[in-house]
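assembly run, all chains below
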Amino acid sequence: MNKIEFESKEKIKKSEEIIKKILKALGFISVLTTLGIVFSLFEETILFFKDISIKEFLTGREWTPLFQPPKFGVLPLVVGTLLIVVISSIISIPVGLGSAIYLSEYAPKKIRKILKPVLEILAGIPSIVYGYFALTAITPIIKIIFPQTSVYNALSAGIAVGIMTIPLVSSLSEDAMMSVPDSLRFGAYALGATKYEVIKDIVIPTAFPTIVASFILAISRAVGETMIVAMAAGSTPKMTLNPLESIQTMTGYIVQISMGDIPYGSIGYRTLFAVGSLLFLITFTLNLISRYVIRRHRRLY
Amino acid sequence: MENIIKIENLNFYYGNFLALKNINMDIYKNKITAFIGPSGCGKSTLLRTLNRMNDFIENIKVEGNIYFKGQNIYSKEVDPVELRRRIGMVFQKPNPFPKTIYENIVYGLRKNGVNKKEILDEVVERTLKAVALYDEVKDKIYKSALELSGGQQQRLCIARAIAMQPEVVLMDEPTSALDPISTLKIEELLLELKKDYTIIIVTHSMQQAARISDWTAFFLNGELIEYDTTENIFENPRDKRTEDYITGRFG
Amino acid sequence: MENIIKIENLNFYYGNFLALKNINMDIYKNKITAFIGPSGCGKSTLLRTLNRMNDFIENIKVEGNIYFKGQNIYSKEVDPVELRRRIGMVFQKPNPFPKTIYENIVYGLRKNGVNKKEILDEVVERTLKAVALYDEVKDKIYKSALELSGGQQQRLCIARAIAMQPEVVLMDEPTSALDPISTLKIEELLLELKKDYTIIIVTHSMQQAARISDWTAFFLNGELIEYDTTENIFENPRDKRTEDYITGRFG
Amino acid sequence: MDITKRRKFKNRIFHVLTFLCTLFGVIILSVLLFSILSKGIKWLSLNFLTNFPSRFPKKAGIYPALLGSLWLIFLTAIISFPIGIGTALYLEEYAKESKFTDFIKLNIANLAGVPAIIYGMLGLTIFVRLLGFGRSIISGALTMSLLILPTIIISSQEALKSVPDSLKQASYALGTTKWQTITGVVLPYALPGILTGTILSISRALGEAAPLIVVGAFAYVSFIPKTPFDQFTVLPIQIFNWASMPKKEFQNVAAAGIIVLLIILLGINSIAIILRNKYQIRIKD
Amino acid sequence: RQGKLAGTIKIDGSSTVYPITQAVAEEFNKQNPNVNITVGISGTGGGFKKFVNGEIDINDASRSIKTEELAKAKANGIDFIELEVAYDGIVVVVNKDNNWAYDITTQELKKIWDKDSKVVYWSDVRPEWPKEKIKLYGPGTDSGTFDYFTSEINGEEKRIRADYTASEDDNVLVQGVAGDKYAMGFFGHSYYEENKDVLKVLKINGVEPTTENIRNGKYKPLSRPLYIYVNKKSLERPEIKSFVKFYLEKAKDLVEDVGYVPLEDKKYQEQLNKIK
Ligand SMILES: Nc1ncnc2c1ncn2[C@@H]1O[C@H](COP(=O)(O)OP(=O)(O)OP(=O)(O)O)[C@@H](O)[C@H]1O
Ligand SMILES: Nc1ncnc2c1ncn2[C@@H]1O[C@H](COP(=O)(O)OP(=O)(O)OP(=O)(O)O)[C@@H](O)[C@H]1O
Ligand SMILES: [Mg+2]
Ligand SMILES: [Mg+2]
Ligand SMILES: O=P([O-])([O-])[O-]
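ok done. output:
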């Protein structure tokens, strides 16, 4: 048996150190991104609040930052966003949850194998396509039912956002329900429960926190959704809860102004960032809540 | 002796796999019947066939007949939901619902339209006493059942099963996840319960079968090798394979 | 007898938990040493301390000294990567890389700068022969190692370990996941290998320890209770606890 | 018996309801695809792929947007891929459990939930203005990279987690260093999973329009970008543009554009699925 | 002569002028495929902002440069030439199915569009008009059209009621009005030309926005010239010089093509002379 000569590892070990440092540096990029977001949003926002009081911003009921005289009450945009969220949730939550229940509890394996990917496709369609769909297919249908509907309206956009977020709700909820141990289900069946009762009494309550988290995520997504509302919801910042009217959301405002390229440094430019900051804070809070809910759930099991 | 279940020429398939081969046997009323045999021989499969819990598995096929009090349980008229109410089941791993102890016990009753508080209260107390859990938990019956120990949980599951006043209780290795002391308690409980119920128990412990059962069935590879009184099986097995198994020569 | 490893006053902590208590022992060259003892007694921990595989676990603490050929392996000068090259290891579950058989064997060599085809070819053939796998796999050494049976995989893992020409081979229950026939083959192999290597083997099977090892160490709760020639341990245990364990009275 | 009947009836109703919910998604998908295909398919042609945008719907083509999109996802991929995998490697293989590591993980999870348009504002401030890249492909690609990084990192982490510890230990036990173990065992094993996740994120970048509008990819571009510092437009924005044109025919042009976009997405996703199925290594347990 | 010229031309600015410039660019590129042209739509104001910083070569403008902008240009050392390229009329349009409104006065327009306007229903404008909610569409704030309309009708730039649908994208406005029986909107004449089939235009003070009326100034006060502003330094580059020349030579046909009113031939000649 010949003795094999091995190379010394000195050189390798040096590069190991360098690699480790590089990787660590890459890890910092995510932190930098967050800092970048905070910096890019808040710098202009602070400048904005030097001119406009936070109180006016948060409580004003008129949003006309670029008209004469300008008004900086963000509530109309918030109400518009809320309207979209409510409409989309009315679609995505029950339909998403229903699909999740069907796929996890009722569907035979074969059907599940076909239907699940279909829902995943729905999640992969770009929002611009949903926007187009809202404008060219959903709105005309709404107009048949409610002729007084505006061409651009919250309902159509909200429905499209709802459709888009169905898969989000269904796949997360389904995962949660699938992870409910079968032993619990069988325990109930053995007592003579029907499937519906098992779902209602055992599966959903057990998976509830994750299901709720999926709802929150869907809402957060609806808050942040942009192209659909930009294309279909209109651009009228209005304090209305009438879904048939044209409205404007926070994201819709940002896109509208971005397309017009507002001059850098003007108050108009800063409104972009003030609205962006608010949007960021809202979605950030929603995401934190959903994480918290899921986490607490994990600890229970 | 009165039989309560009669199994006739039963074949059971998972897909193409024949898991039970031409089983014929009678289960006698108010007796404890033990199913023994090496892992994978089909004990659980047979047990679950008796209350149609196998319905939830896809791609199964049942041939032959099973009569429960004279009625074929696989006939169209029989509603499996109703059947399961009358033939209860306890599983290997304790599986209390994530609800209170109280709600665990009355779950089946509520689903069957029993909602009167007096009745429910009475049932909870009676069944908890029956499974000798009452003293241990009486102060926390409105607390989550998940807070109980494993042995207590299993007794709770038995309480939950008998709360429905089933005629037969199926038990699939009910003590295998428990410590010796909890096991002993449950064995005592079974001997107590057989006055009112017919019990079928799957067990891996020869000692347990010998200790508590009246009848014992030995399975191998999906076949019923020998079925006799427990005494005969353990002292006078007719089949060589039974003997080998109970003397620990394989398995 | 020449010792190749010397363990002195070794304490080992997982966090605050003292898993090894004041271990002192010598491992002798070209012998097979068996570590036995009930589950959780620290056998694997000690084994992994010898080639510093424990370094990958967070929050550990090592006190005392371990000398490998006279050098303290926990001193600063010792490079654990180099140490592991010289003290090979085989695990409980066969863990071939998802690569070809060939690449599995030469993996360590390549990573250590050996890339000459002639050398590699020679090593593959020699080690496969050494683990008695050559005839079985010679037609498929460029096929995935995952296609081998469990026993073959484990022998491949041994081949992979000895391809590095280590001086000591550590084995943590190398046959516990295998069928009796594969186990036998590997035991024969070990007896063959001890001519060239020093082997330390953790095993749960008393029979195995008795069959193949020269020295046996019995551990209990992190303590080395008794360490002696295998003959003495099994025929003349000095400690009551050793006797109890090997006669199967506990564990 | 009445009550049992009612209970079973409820179950049946519920079964049907949930089935309808699932069907809803399927139906919507079919309606959506049908409405787009029926409008756009006639407008698809080779010329449509190779023409520049035009004020005449018949002459309008998608060429610059198509190439802009390809440029964008190419750059986005080569930027985000190494950073994403590197970060995942750091978190899974190097970083010790610590408050700081937890913070980074939490941070990444939160970034994954930040709306795309916010990334657009980040890109506008940092890349377009601060770093002075202007409204160029590189600004867009950097923005998109940051947008999809969290998803890439998270899915890469999942893939890395799936590498059995026993393989790593086996490698270390042969006297290899950490990086050697990573390149020798960990990455080959995890790569299909990593690629699948990455490709799916890239396809998300392909469909996003909002951040790029903020970054400023909204214009008539009469040329094919040749360097990363050129101005550009991308498919979704071109589609958006057409969809908001007043001439009815442009609606159909937009639909044709959507078909092209969806075909590309489908292609990319199929690659991901094929990769996953073909190279998934199965270790016997 | 094909392909000789190369380089890039950066254009931005008015969405009103955009269709003309885009058409010119399209044609120009047919002959000079190696010239890279981008045409942004930042609005006249947004475009000037970049123009006076030297970021772009040409700014499309639907109004002439303001004094502040001029000062900025001076400060930055930007020299430029202003070229008239077409006439535009701002049209006030209603839905095709609107069978009550045919003309409107400037006073009525002010009543509708002014800040704090009390007009909610059509009947608030004229009692005989239906008592239906009036839905308003108009360009966004960054546009010359908006500036021009607000200053001419409401008497102050950017003075306008808050609750109308504003979009930088005129097509959105067209679709809005076309889809809504009770809508009213205003935007550049060209967008009306392209959508005559779905829109109905209103006479203002009895004058129809015909090509003729716009050119001879009868359509008051909502007609105006459109410009491009060319950076003089950029003009030294052959591709830009050639582009601008091409612009003015082809403007007459292309302007009409996209729905605007061309200048008189003589006037185009004058413009051409400016860049000699
Ligand atoms: N759902 C299933 N699908 C397919 N085959 C199954 C299924 N459940 C059990 N089997 C197979 O049927 C045979 C009998 O299984 P069963 O669970 O009844 O055995 P058992 O006697 O209860 O074993 P154990 O003592 O291990 O519980 C086994 O070979 C098993 O692999
Ligand atoms: N990574 C770890 N962190 C904390 N404690 C550990 C760790 N690994 C092992 N232990 C503990 O250290 C003790 C010794 O474990 P070790 O694995 O060495 O036992 P063993 O003798 O090999 O047992 P077995 O025969 O089951 O493999 C046990 O109490 C175990 O719980
Ligand atoms: Mg079983
Ligand atoms: Mg061990
Ligand atoms: O885009 P404008 O022409 O209205 O400035």
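Residues 40 and 273 of chain A are 8 Å apart (CA to CA).

The interface with chain B takes residues 108-109, 181, 183-194, 197, 201-202, 205-206 of chain A (CB under 8 Å).

not gonna interpret more than that til we talk
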